[in-house]
Amino acid sequence: MSSREQILAAVKKNQPEATGLPSLKGLAGEMPATLEAYRKVLESLGGSLFEITDKAQVPALLAQHYPHLERVVFADDKQEWAHEDPHQLENVDMAVVTGQWGVAENGAIWLTENDIAVRVLPFICQHLAIIIPRERILATMHDAYEKIGAPQTGFGVFIAGPSKTADIEQSLVLGAHGAKSLAVFVLG
Amino acid sequence: MNRPTTDHATLADKFNENEPRVNWHDETLWWVRAKRDRQAWSIPEWELLRETASQIKLNVLGNLHDYLTQFEQQALQNGAVVHWAADAAEHNRIVTDILQRHGVKRMVKSKSMLTEECHLNPHLEANGIDVIDTDLGERIVQLAKEPPSHIVLPCIHKKKEEIGELFHEHLGTPAGNADPQFLTAAARLHLRKEFLQSKAAITGVNFAVAETGEMVVCTNEGNADMGAHLADVHIACMGIEKIIPERKHLGVFLRLLARSATGQPITTYSSHFRKPAPGKELHIVIVDNGRSRQLGREDFRNSLKCIRCGACMNTCPVYRRSGGHSYHTAVAGPIGSILAPNLDMKDYADLPFASTLCGSCSNVCPVKIDIHQQLYKWRQVLVQEGHTSAAKTAGMKVMNAVLSKPGNFKKAGKMGRWVLRAFPGMVNNRFNPWYKQREMPAPPAQSFSEWYAQQQSTKK
Question: What is the CATH code of the structural domain delimited by B43-134+199-292?
Answer without folding.
Answer: 3.40.50.10420
